[in-house]
Amino acid sequence: MTPVQILDRLSAAQAADVLALAAAAEQADGVYPLSEDVVLRVRGGGSPAAHKHFLTYADDGRLAGYAFSEGELVVHPGYRRRGHGTALLAAAGSGPLRFWAHGDEDGARAFAEKNGFERVRVLWQMRRSLTEPLPDIPLPAGVTLRGFRPGLDEDAWLGVNSRAFAHHPEQGRWTRDDLLAREAEPWFDPAGFLLAVDVADTLLGFHWTKVHPASGDDPALGEIYVLGVDPAGHRKGLGAALSVAGLRHLAGQGLTVANLYVDESNTAAAALYRRLGFAVYKTDINYQRP
């Protein structure tokens, strides 16, 4: 069996090797193989929870495969079909396990089936043009928008986020460390982190946008990064109004394409985004082994 290193934290050199492996996989497969959260943890950011990094090396000493205990696995294109993926799975243990396949690719599907994994979750990336007209959806009465204030709004946002995403397997578990890690990222822009508040400045909902620079064949993208409404103080139409307000902000930055990620099973959110002109662009699959 191919040996696997299991680490709590990566060195700077190991992190660089993992990111280089991910870049090679993206070039070969046309889709980046790691989520943003895992990239942050590879770099040493995010919540210091008990997660593990798994590394396997080829005979020439190069990093051949990488896995993260929260469900990411990727093998370098030059070292596939040599047992590295199987070794990473074995090192993760024989119990229940999940991993993401970014892009609904035949190779990932075959690997999952061979190793006893079932398709349990579908995440859509949806896109729309920002050059097309946006609907006029006003904010509910008594609600205004303002930008996020770093150092002041973290606790209120974390509370609303946890309630809005109480049943979401990733988003609802964000901690202060997770939020601060993203505030430290070069893309973070508090002006694009829109907060909906009432007359007492109580947070009712939010639309956090993110700008992705052009990459490969992709133009610069304006993302609906996270959008949530506090179920404890829900105002009719606030989610749709926040969606449009954020899209107008992105269009005002000169962006021409917007994107977002939504679970296929979240039919209410997917229906809202379709009404706003979004269509499915790519699909990510989560596989689970019982």
Automatic annotation (TrEMBL):
Any Pfam family: Acetyltransf_1
Sequence positions that bind 1D-myo-inositol 2-(L-cysteinylamino)-2-deoxy-alpha-D-glucopyranoside: 36, 170, 210, 223, 261
PROSITE patterns named among the record's database cross-references: GNAT (PS51186)
GO biological process entries: mycothiol biosynthetic process
Residues the entry annotates as binding acetyl-CoA 2: 227-229
Record field: catalytic activity: 1D-myo-inositol 2-(L-cysteinylamino)-2-deoxy-alpha-D-glucopyranoside + acetyl-CoA = mycothiol + CoA + H(+)
Entry binding sites for acetyl-CoA 1: 73-75, 81-86
Gene Ontology molecular-function annotations: mycothiol synthase activity; protein-N-terminal-alanine acetyltransferase activity
EC number(s) per entry: 2.3.1.189
Keywords tagged on the record: Acyltransferase, Repeat, Transferase
Domain N-acetyltransferase residues, every copy: 8-135, 143-290
The protein's role, per its UniProt record: Catalyzes the transfer of acetyl from acetyl-CoA to desacetylmycothiol (Cys-GlcN-Ins) to form mycothiol.
PANTHER family noted in UniProt: L-AMINO ACID N-ACETYLTRANSFERASE (PTHR43617), MYCOTHIOL ACETYLTRANSFERASE (PTHR43617:SF31)
Family: Belongs to the acetyltransferase family. MshD subfamily.
HAMAP family (alphabetical): MshD
Subunit-level organization: Monomer.
Name by which UniProt lists this protein: Mycothiol acetyltransferase
Lineage, highest ranks first: Bacteria, Bacillati, Actinomycetota, Actinomycetes, Micromonosporales
